[in-house]
Write a structure and sequence with these properties.
This protein is an alpha/beta fold. It contains 16 helices and 15 strands. The chain folds into two domains: 134 residues, Rossmann fold; 283 residues, tm_1862 like domain (pyruvate-formate lyase- activating enzyme), CATH 3.80.30.20.
């Protein structure tokens, strides 16, 4: 799934492309979603490369698009095997291959150590069934090999193959207002999450938390700055400050190497402390996103968020006081949600000194723990196509889809149409491009809110005035 206005590529594909190239394969990347390529254009690029095998990645709502593309590959490139990786097949390997027969096999979980052996086996007539972390067909059924152990030494992996993208970085940018300057890029510095939030899908990386070393991280940053002219980075880790000594070392190295770089990241409120925030601000961090989810403590406890409302408020205030903007991520339609709990959430978001606000619909994706016993709390539409966080697929008891959509739209108006927020955005205008950026974000939000009312979907992430 991509947020509106986001044209950044799949880092997973770029990482696997780098591994394949280092293993002696000739590799091309056709990043159709980022470049807004239709099926015909994407297929034409594949044909011009003349591949012996094709690999794809897919989240749950995009697996149908990937399956359609796989079918076209089978029609036009006879005999070319198609491999699927990513979160959806990792969560439901047997169901995915059974439902979509144009995928020849699936890579389950981390694919770094599997990708070269898989393609070598496919091209040389070997047996991929001997490779860990594979789902494939055997005798009319789908068989799975044991999952590979999590990669501990992430530093042995190559940096993403940015050079395989046409016109990088000029053609690529994150969602509107999620960056400070252009050109911009994204990166991961760790894998896995130690938390137990029941709505989170950990099918690929699991709970085993591992990080690239500080030197590896800053080497990648430096390459993006020196080679590609990148000026802003969005770090996509679930909790970038998780390893405090590493974080402090990253901040120190950014300053030592004189990198002209601004960056933002995600964190949890329990990792906010004055020393960490000072170091991050000094090294160019301008925004931290916190997963707040709800303003109702009972709901937070039900989804095993393991945070208290007072801790959230403390962390947000501390971050803003350190000179770093804060963005709050919320959900509407969580188990046990009522009109009153939604009101509390909107009120809580307004009370916090947040700079930015984003909400989505609670979406129990395949592979998440929350799906067990969910029926007691409401009705689930288990259509994979709709699981994009923008469409209410779960409706709590006592509410309707229309209720959820109306309250999501109302929450944006309630947060952003306040003098404090409007003034903060106007105060950011220093150069003409800032005004353009602000205008684009405002128009996007307005269009999104109007579309939400017509189509009963939520305002799209990335379309708010971030």
């Amino acid at each position: 799934m991509r947020t509106v206005g986001n044209t950044m590529p799949s880092l997973g594909l770029l990482g696997l492309a780098a591994i394949l190239r280092d293993s002696g394969f000739a590799v091309a990347v056709v990043d159709a979603p980022s470049r807004n390529l239709g099926y015909a254009a994407a297929l034409a690029e594949l044909e011009s490369f003349g591949p012996d095998a094709v690999g794809m990645t897919a989240f749950t709502p995009s697996v149908f698009n990937a399956a359609k593309m796989a079918g076209l590959v089978k029609e036009r490139l006879s005999g070319v095997p198609v491999v699927l990786g990513g979160p959806h097949v990792s969560a439901l390997p047997a169901d995915t291959l059974a439902r979509f027969t144009d995928f020849d096999l699936g890579v389950v979980g981390e694919g770094d150590d599997a990708v070269a052996p898989v393609f070598r086996a496919l091209l040389d007539g070997g047996d991929p069934g001997a490779i860990p972390g594979i789902a494939l067909r055997r005798g009319g059924a789908v068989a799975e090999t044991p999952r590979a152990a999590p990669i501990r030494d992430l530093d042995r992996l190559p940096h993403p193959a940015w050079d395989l993208l046409p016109a990088f970085p000029a053609r690529y940018r994150p969602a509107a207002h999620t960056y400070r300057r252009l050109p911009a890029a994204i990166m991961f510095t760790a894998r896995g999450c130690p938390e137990s939030c029941v709505f989170c899908d950990r099918s690929v990386f699991g709970n085993a938390v591992r990080g690239f070393s500080a030197e590896y991280v800053v080497d990648e940053m430096e390459s993006l700055v020196r080679r590609w002219g990148i000026k802003d980075l969005t770090i996509y880790d679930d909790i970038f400050p998780l390893f405090k000594p590493r974080l402090l070392r990253v901040c120190e190295l950014i300053r030592q190497r004189g990198l002209d770089l601004t960056w933002s990241c995600n964190s949890r409120v329990n990792f906010a402390d004055p020393e960490t925030l000072r170091a991050m601000r000094a090294a160019g961090c301008w925004q931290i996103g916190y997963g707040i989810e709800s303003g109702d403590q009972e709901i937070l406890d039900r989804i095993v968020k393991r945070t208290r409302l007072e801790d959230i408020e403390r962390a947000v205030r501390m971050t803003e006081e350190a000179g770093i903007r804060t963005k709050g991520f919320f959900m509407i339609g969580l188990p046990g949600e009522t009109p009153e709990t939604i009101r509390r959430t909107i009120s809580f978001a307004r009370r916090l000194p947040l700079s930015d606000y984003q909400t989505c619909f609670f979406t129990p994706l395949p592979g998440t723990a929350v799906r067990a016993g969910l029926s007691r709390w409401g009705a689930l539409d288990d259509d994979w196509r709709k699981m994009n966080l923008l469409t209410p697929v779960f409706v709590p008891n006592g509410l309707t889809r229309g209720d959820l959509v109306a309250r999501a739209a109302r929450s944006y108006w309630a947060f952003y149409l306040r003098p404090r927020i409007v003034w903060r955005y106007l105060a950011r205008v220093r150069r003409p491009e800032h005004l353009t950026q602000l205008f684009r974000g405002g128009v996007a939000l307005l269009v999104s809110l109007l579309a939400a009312r017509r189509r009963r979907v939520a305002p799209a992430p990335g379309q708010d005035l971030q």
